[in-house]
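To assess whether ligand presence alters the predicted conformation, the chain was also submitted together with inosinic acid. Input:
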Amino acid sequence: MLISAERIAERVAALGAQITKDYRDKSLVIVCVLRGSFVFAADLARAIGLPLKIEFLGVQSYGEDTESSGVVRITLDLKTPIADEHVLVVEDIVDTGLTLNYLLDHLGMQSPASVRVCSLLHKPARARVDIPIDYLGFTIDDVFVVGYGLDVAHYHRNLPYVAELPTSNRDETRDG
Ligand code: IMP
Ligand code: MG
């Protein structure tokens, strides 16, 4: 285990309080990036004391390969226009940064009032593009993690904590 459910809950409460303060009197739209951020977004949304809308964006970052290709495919797009809305993109992890780099371009073209990023995890050792993370849960070393929404080959998303995957189990595909 790398990050316990208790530590996650504490951090989520703090992020929710900060976001509540920063977006007071604004119309907030949370964009939950599927599938990895569904657990984090559900907890974070309930830690924010503001009226808000939740949208879902489905992405596949790596296709069938374990190495990031930089090619991001949108598998589910927003259902409601975000023009003039304050958008908060909620991600599970920023690894190479290529997924968010693409998504921020994609969202930016739809004339939102603002776009900010909230990520549960950040793995700076593998960064290939610089992504401004406005709200961050935890910085981690260059290890492959699962749990609290994050998967390996679609499994382990339901673990209530974040765990490091042993190297021998790492040779699998990953997506959103
Ligand atoms: P990127 O390299 O920043 O584009 O990361 C894209 C996506 O890869 C993330 O949103 C995750 O879904 C996935 N990913 C990156 N690192 C990990 C990890 O350690 N565990 C599980 N998924 C990961
Ligand atoms: Mg993801």
